[in-house]
Structure formats: C-alpha cells, structure tokens
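Input record, target 12 of the design panel.
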C-alpha cells in the first residue's frame, strides 16, 4: 500500500498530474457548457476555447512557469472581454490560476515572475469586472507559498551538496588515516628490523673472523645473533598484538627496554654509556615509546656509520620535559658493511615520531666528527618521580 501511494504521489507531483488535471477541468467545463446549451453562439465558443486554453497552460507550468502564466493572463483577459453567459462556471478557472501563481513563486527569477504575476492579477480583475479581494487570495497567496517552497528547495540543495562534500572529506580522511597507519607500521618495522639486523650482521662478521682463532668467542657471537633474531621476533609479535588491542600504559617500563637495547649494542662491540639525571618519569605512553625508539635508532646508526666509536646516552628530566641525548664519537674502525644499508628514513621517522608527541628534535655532526641527537619530549601533568637507579 505505501508503494502504491508513493507512485500516485510521484505521478501527481509531475507534469503527468498537471496534464490529468488540465484535461479533467477542460472536459468538465466543455461538458457543462454542452449540457447547458452554452456552445451555440460565437461568444460562448470563444469563452469555451479560452477556458480550455487556460486549463491547458497547466501542462507546461513546471517547465515554463512564466510563459504559462503569461499566456493564461492573456486568455483570461480575452474571456473577460468576451464575457460569459449566465450559468457558466467561471469560478472553476481559479484552480489553474492558483497552480500557475504557485509555479511563478517557485521560479528562480523572482523579478520576472512578479511582472507576470501582476499581468495575471490584471487579467483576473478584467474578467471579474470589479475589484474582488478573492483575486489576491488566489494569486498573491500561492505566489508567496511558491517563494517559500523555492527557498526550501534551495536550502535542501545546499544541504545535499554539503553532505556530498562531507562524504568526500570523510573518504579523504579515511584514506589519509590508512596512509598514516601504513607509514607508522613501516616506521615500527624499520626500527625493529634495522637494529636487530645491524647487530646480527656485525656479530656474524666478528664470528667469521674468530672462527679460526677463538672458537669460544665465535660461539658467543653466534649466540648473540640468535638472541638478536629472537628479540626481533618478540618485538614484531608485540607489534602485531598492539594492532589488535589498545596499547598498554608505558610508565617506567621503557627504561627496561632501554637497558635491553644498550646491552645488545654493547654485545655488538659498541662502547655505550647510559646516564639518568633529574626526574625523568611522567612521560606519556606515546612519548616513552618514542624515547625508546629514538635511542634504538641512534645506536643502530652508530653501529652502521661509526664502527668502533663510543656512544653516550643521557636521559635528563627538567621542568615539564624529558631530554634524551645520544652522542657518538667518530669512527674508530674500518667502514662497516652496513654503512650503505637501509633506506635513509631513520632520521625522518624520528622527526615524525617526536613531532607527533609535541616534542622537538635536533640532530647533526659534532665538532670531532661524531654525531649528536637531542630530543625534548613533554611530560604529561606535573608528575615527576626521582629515578631509583
């Protein structure tokens, strides 16, 4: 039943409905005049033809409202001049006049529709023969209603266009979120794999050299390779786990991770010192993870580009920030086979991570040929816990 009513409404609210109404009114007028014997004289025939033409203007009122109303105004004036015989149902013509006035108000060109409306009112007054306030009711009233409908249609169109824009923006933001998430995962994998692979390559090189001279030390080097591989596997598993649930809060646990990465770098032959000063606790989980990744990436770069050099790590809490500094000296050994490995995205990834936490990063060469990385990460709240180290 609702589908039937919907189809009927769509027909009525279209040119098909206007055509049906025009034919029904014209047939009614002509049938009435024929039954009353009012189609015998020339004046009666002129009136009947004009009335039928006014009804016919309904058919094109949606496509050409101004032309339809202007034509109806002329025909109404003609029927008024011709006059109607007693008993002719002239009041039936107010129905098409009502609809035509409404279409004028709904037209986009208001200025021209006002002129045609005045012509329609003048034609009606000429047909009526004297001032009648009902003429204003069936012309100005529907015209004002058409104006309101036009404004509502414009508002609906604007809202529809805005809805399409918002949908396009939503799709764009979704695509950007996917791109950002892919970049984040790529950074995570880079930090995990690059460090562990660097340690494994260096230990493998050392193990090859020690195989003939010191088998026990070579075995330790190969054990370190296995440990680095297991560490990489564990971190990748942790990364996969974090993709399925919210990351756990990272309080002072990041210090334990720093100890692990320092121990692995030391086992790979890098002389590393790590100092804590001030109140360095209170970092947000994201900032704490960023501090760990910063130290991991800096030590990886030292292993790649400054073999045999020493590295000094300082974590210092001051005010509302925690400063993380990693400084390595100049290379003290032959170039590492890892020097040209990697995609060169490590420093850019660190900048993106720290910027996302609201921190600052500076990195560059030192005066003695080494490299220094300094990051300032904001703490959450005013909490500051003295280190128990």
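The sequence produced for target 12 reads:
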């Amino acid at each position: 039943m609702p589908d039937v009513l919907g189809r009927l409404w769509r027909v009525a609210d279209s040119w098909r409905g206007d055509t049906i109404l025009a034919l029904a009114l014209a047939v009614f007028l002509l049938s009435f005049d024929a039954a009353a014997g009012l189609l015998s004289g020339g004046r009666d025939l002129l009136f009947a033809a004009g009335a039928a033409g006014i009804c016919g203007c309904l058919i094109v009122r949606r496509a050409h409202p101004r032309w339809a109303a202007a034509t109806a105004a002329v025909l109404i004036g003609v029927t008024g001049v011709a006059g109607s015989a007693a008993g002719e149902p002239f009041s039936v013509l107010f129905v098409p006049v009502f609809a035509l006035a409404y279409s004028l108000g709904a037209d986009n060109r208001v200025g021209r529709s006002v002129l045609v409306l005045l012509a329609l009112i003048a034609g009606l007054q000429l047909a009526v023969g004297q001032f009648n306030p009902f003429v204003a009711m069936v012309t100005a009233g529907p015209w004002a209603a058409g104006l309101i409908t036009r404004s509502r249609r414009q508002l609906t169109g604007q809202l529809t266009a805005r809805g399409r824009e918002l949908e396009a923006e939503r799709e764009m933001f979704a695509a950007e979120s996917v791109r950002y998430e892919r970049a984040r995962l790529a950074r995570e994998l880079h930090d995990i794999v690059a460090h562990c692979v660097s340690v494994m390559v260096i230990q493998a090189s050392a193990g090859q050299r020690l195989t003939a001279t010191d088998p026990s030390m070579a075995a330790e080097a190969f054990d370190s390779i296995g440990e680095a591989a297991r560490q990489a596997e564990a971190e990748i598993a942790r990364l996969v786990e974090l993709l399925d649930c919210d990351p756990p809060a990272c309080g002072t646990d990041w210090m334990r991770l720093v100890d692990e990465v320092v121990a692995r770098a030391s086992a790979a032959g890098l002389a590393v010192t790590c100092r804590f000063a001030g109140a360095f606790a209170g970092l947000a989980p994201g900032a704490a993870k960023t501090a760990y990744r910063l130290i991991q990436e800096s030590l990886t770069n030292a292993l790649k580009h400054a073999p045999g050099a020493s590295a000094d790590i300082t974590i210092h809490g001051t005010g509302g920030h925690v400063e993380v500094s990693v400084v390595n000296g100049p290379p003290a050994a032959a170039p590492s086979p890892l020097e040209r490995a990697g995609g060169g995205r490590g420093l850019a990834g660190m900048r993106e991570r720290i910027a996302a936490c609201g921190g600052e990063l500076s990195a560059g060469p030192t005066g003695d040929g080494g490299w220094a990385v300094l990051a300032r990460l904001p703490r959450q709240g005013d909490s500051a816990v003295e280190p128990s180290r």
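The first strand starts at residue 271 and ends at 278.
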